[in-house]
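Allow me, if you will, to draw on your knowledge of protein folds for a short while. I have a record of one protein: its chain in single-letter code and its fold written as C-alpha cells. The full record is reproduced below for your convenience:
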Amino acid sequence: MRRGIAATALVASIALAATACGGGSGKADGPVTITWWDTSNATNEAPAYQALAKEG
C-alpha cells in the first residue's frame, strides 16, 4: 500500500514539474540578467569565470 502511494506521489510530482516548464517561446523580450553563485576560490577561479561570461 505504501509503495503505491509513494509511486503515485512521485508520478504526480514529475507531472507537475513537467507542466511548470512548458509554455513560452524561450526567448527574452529584453535584456536578461543571470546571477552566478560561485562557491569556489574567488582569487584563483573568478577571472576564468568572468572570461567565460564575456565570451557567452
Notes: The mean pLDDT is 78. Residues 48 and 54 are 10 Å apart (CA to CA).
